[in-house]
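Researcher: Next entry in the queue.
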Amino acid sequence: MKILLIEDRVGDVLLKILGKWGYEVLLAEDGESAWEILSETRIEFFLVDWMLPGISGLELVHRIRQLEQYREVPIVMISSRTRKEDLAQVAQAKVDGYIAKPFTPVQLKAKIEEVYRRWQQDPALAAQARQIVKGHRAFVSDATTPLVVMGAGATDAEGLLAGGRCQINGLSRVVSVIEKVNAEDVDLQLGHLLVESTNEIALLLARWSMRARMKMIVLSPVCKGNYMLLLRLLKQGDVEAVPFVLMCERADDLTPEVRAAVKEGSIYLFEDPSLDDERWMELADRYLVDGD
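Model: Structure for this entry, 292 residues:
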């Protein structure tokens, strides 16, 4: 998990502590430098000190929440202010957690884990996961209807939720596109199938009955296996016609080989896939409807 720590006094100390727990942490000492980081990097969790030089941490939170991609990302406020009116301001700013100074490393870790666990258990997110799995369970192996194969690292709702919000939002977008396509063409009956790894997709491609049904392959950030081996298989013969879509939170996390494949057009890349409905529909029109 990538954390943006915005703290001007004990930032260096907290940076070391968070790093020991396995978090990837970026440090900003004021709102301006935090904003620069946000323009370049996708953040998954915020730790924000209320009292910062220049813009206050509370005002910074308000600005972060105005960004589409950060409206629901977890934010924990750090402060020595504990009056009722102060806590009311924090709640109004849509902060997910609050930790009062002074605190121990154990208390900080517990707060981060509590907020992140609660964020993952968001009822709306769980409902999305169940909807994704519902379509997967409707899959009929001996049918001839067209199919989108989703490499999601899991085939149940609990496993999908463990993969994080980026995965759920992205896969949910694909399911919404499938439902829209089916509504416009009642004879199509496009479906989707969840698999855990690229190896499973390779086995499906080896079966002509499945290969003939496959209209698109979508891989989530937590799909297991080697993306490039699968891509090389897709480029063999007529299998090349199946589009390969890769969702990720940050393109910078991809290997140079995968980034090169994206650049040459062999892979369709969706960075933060929940935010690009227009592009999803363009792919659907091209591959799921027309079948070009």
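Model: The mean pLDDT is 86.
Researcher: Noted, moving on.
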